[in-house]
Amino acid sequence: MPSNRNAFSSWRRRLVQNAVHAGWAWVQRTASVTAEHPGRLRFGAIGTGTRLAFPLGTVFGEPWIHLGDHCIVGEQVTLTAGLMPDLDLGPDPILRLGDGVVLGRGSHVIADTTVTIGSDCYFGPYVYVTSTNHSYDDPHEPIGKQWPRMEPVEIGPGCWIGTGAVILPGARIGRNVVVAAGAVVRGTVPDHAVVAGAPARVVRRWDAAAGWQPPLRTPAPVPIPDGVTPEQLLALSGLDEAAVARLAELDLAAGEAAGDVRAES
């Protein structure tokens, strides 16, 4: 029987693999950017608890970039202010992120003129936000050499921007708006709306009297009860389906027993 030449290489490979993974995790932790450890970056403002994951995307014009508290900027996210590095953009910030903003991996926020993202906005991966668009007025000049058009962009607080969405110059997105994955948004989007498509259009909207129109097709999720601790949630996550089903049966039996007691009284 031929000898297994990999008999001793497998454990070496595991050791090297574990060492590489541990080393990369250390690099990611150490090289991430925070207010306490900004590295080479000098943002106009970077709030408490905000972190830019490593590896970074393209970042320039940071004196005109203001980041709020407790923001999470994923890996390979591009944040730029101005058409190119080393420009004097004046006294006011160009790109503003509110508190609690999450920018998913590989997203781009290109602020050649003002871009404002409200607090508690969540972006999926690979979202593209830009305040600049190419112009093609002159049919004889290459489009890339023509001076671009710029319009401010504003995204209201509490929005959810789906994976691969594109927010174009001049967009004004209201409060608590859902932008579907792959949508291309231009113009004004009202508060409490869901938009989808390219170009994006309103497909659902909340009305104070009638609720969501058209009505939601699924019931609202049941929130975690008050008083549940993180340790209890971790314990529940380790249960198998049979145990979860048994807990549901016990809960149902307890409810029925309580109902019987109330009926007898």
TrEMBL record:
Record bears the keyword Secreted: no
Keywords tagged on the record: Acyltransferase, Repeat, Transferase
InterPro entries listed in its UniProt record: Hexapep, Hexapep_transf_CS, Hexapeptide_acetyltransf, Trimer_LpxA-like_sf
GO molecular function per UniProt: O-acyltransferase activity
Any one Pfam family match given in the protein's UniProt record, by short name: Hexapep
GO cellular component: cytosol
The keyword Acetylation appears for this protein: no
Taxonomy, superkingdom: Bacteria
Family recorded in the similarity comment: Belongs to the transferase hexapeptide repeat family.
PANTHER family: ACETYLTRANSFERASE C18B11.09C-RELATED, SIALIC ACID SYNTHASE-RELATED
Protein name listed in UniProt: Acyltransferase
Species annotation: Streptomyces fagopyri
